[in-house]
Specification:
Chain lengths: 281, 281
């Protein structure tokens, strides 16, 4: 194990292992935490990795506890890696004051603005540092998929669209797809990236997909009674952009479902099967 | 809906509905809370009910959020009912002071001692008041099964062994099987039931099974690295009593598993299938 990687707790689960880890992140310049589910197959072979990016206010624990994903990761032989949603305890003034900025709200961008830029480098952390750390310390193949929920759905889409060679599959639950056009995104991007909106485009899936060359189908599930759908998520903007760019999109509007983990748990099997189809061959 | 039954929140889940309820309990003489998962089948027919009793410190929410049970309740068409683990906010002095007595620690007994007896009537609540309330308000058949975890495993075994005609199936995860012979049980029973140990026997599965006539097989899963196994759970005492009484017992020692919901989630499918086999016919 890399010198700085520390296992903080471990649990047997579906004949594999849930582990919670922390390490000193060079990218974020502070201790970062993540969870890993090692499926039983990883005891004897290298397996593909599936990253899950969580939503606002979550830690590395919510998805592992609530989504029911380990059942299917064990069935298909995928390693799950679930990072925290931001650096914590950085000492940045006001980091804990607002639930949609700072702690628990890293938005998967590399901040360029003071005071956030000294620690809030979540994009580079997710795309580069964390995969290198996982490759070094776990029994993994190079194949990677990525998915997420809400703010984390935004993160997953951005990571995949900007790095199509790195991520062989992508999906999302109720993602923020057009952060430049919704209150959560506008607030976070103006704080982390400054007021030049041109600099925001590289973190906006609806912008990125127009010029991306991802080709493989994107799966998105969205609940129809999700209270954030109309004002924050705006799936129709991404659907239009995908249509314009000929990006295959399987957008499933799920009647009666909301924004919660009850919704995620209901469709997690389909998402893991979507990733398994791309990652296992 | 009965006048006093109040729906506090509701979520679509696996094409059914998770609901959290509260009502004024006559038995406990205070507001009580419980969760219900109504599977999709309940929209068009009456379905059997499966009660889950939770462990120390839990509310009606833990199992619903963490166990992954709704997936299988939806598959088999069982209604899940998950009561809280005790009355709350009763005003009894000291109710919140100890994690293993009072709030979150009702132990599924009818307390006979002051100050608890005015509200802590969990056995009668679970066996009589709650099933009547469920029958009155939900689309259910008379068939009932019951299972639980730790303190709730104790509760499930006691309810089933004392009421074999009411509960057609029973199972448990890491149950307290001999409360008269472990520190948790001795502490709780002496506070709730007083110092006459003879009065404890009707709440001790290892005692009850000797004279019960349950006949149907009991399923128990127990992790081998559960830190409570040796001092508190003592499964071997129940196994011996079952052998002596010719009670069929499927006790599965699960290597490497602990006392957590990661353990429960791993084996929940088997338990729900065990109950479905008895309740659906």
């Amino acid at each position: 194990m890399a010198a700085s990687l520390k296992l903080t707790s471990e649990y047997r689960c579906f004949d594999g292992t849930v582990g919670f880890y922390c390490h000193q992140s060079e990218t974020c310049n502070i201790e970062m935490r993540f969870a890993v589910y090692q499926p039983p197959q990883a005891k004897s072979e290298r397996v593909p990795v599936l990253y899950f990016l969580s939503g606002l206010t979550c830690t590395e624990e919510n998805f592992i506890v609530k989504a029911g994903a380990q059942r299917y990761a064990a069935e298909y032989g995928l390693m799950l890696v679930v990072p925290d949603t931001s650096p914590r305890n950085t000492g940045i003034a006001g980091e804990d004051e607002e639930w949609d900025i700072g702690t628990g709200a890293g938005f998967y961008v590399d901040a360029t603005e003071v005071p956030w830029r000294s620690h809030y480098q979540m994009y580079s952390y997710i795309v580069r540092e964390l995969p290198a750390l996982i490759a070094e310390n776990f029994s993994v193949q190079p194949e990677q998929g990525i998915f997420g929920h809400s703010m984390g759905g935004h993160g997953a889409l951005v990571c995949a669209l900007r790095n199509p060679d790195q991520y062989q599959s992508v999906s999302a639950f109720a993602p923020i797809v057009a952060p430049m056009q919704c209150p959560w995104g506008e607030k976070a991007f103006s704080r982390y990236l400054g007021t030049d909106r041109d600099s925001w485009r590289t973190y906006d899936a609806t912008e990125l997909v127009l010029n991306a060359n991802y080709q493989r189908p994107i799966l998105i599930d969205q609940g129809t009674v999700d209270k954030f759908l109309v004002d924050q998520l705006k799936l129709e903007l991404f659907a239009s952009a995908c249509a314009k760019a000929n990006q295959p999109l399987n957008l499933r509007m799920q009647p009666g479902y909301d924004h919660s983990y009850y919704f995620i748990a209901t469709f997690i099997e389909d998402h893991i099967r979507h990733h398994a189809a791309a990652l296992l061959n």
